[in-house]
Amino acid sequence: MTNKTTLTAAVNTEQLQKLADAIKEKRPHMTDVILQHDNARPHVANLTRTKLEELGWEVLAHPSYSPDLAPSDYHLFRSMSNELAGVHFDSDEAVENWIQKFFGSQPAISYERGIHLLPDKWREAVESKGAYMIS
């Protein structure tokens, strides 16, 4: 996405296709893709749902107002936020370079851990019966 692009259903479907192409290129034997995303309008629009059906991806339900159930929020972005404390950027290029360096420095096991924690997070959410949870 280019800078200041609004995330619409059309833009979202383009991003999903790019992701599908990247998966096909980098993991050609992967056949089952499970996607979790929030309920933002572009993610639940008919165009997006049609694209996901076309791709054959399973979509996990994601309750509204539950960022604690998204691995990106409770695992990835938390560590990214810690690293960003006090950092200032002078350009978009500096941001991109920092992000590439950050992701490149994370061991693969770090991402795996976030995914493996997901069932426990879901279990906690179900057992809390809607009560606010502090991670």
Automatic annotation (TrEMBL):
It comes from the Eukaryota. InterPro entries: RNaseH_sf, Transposase-MT_Hybrid. GO terms for molecular function: nucleic acid binding. Signal peptide: none annotated. This is Mariner Mos1 transposase. It comes from Steinernema glaseri.
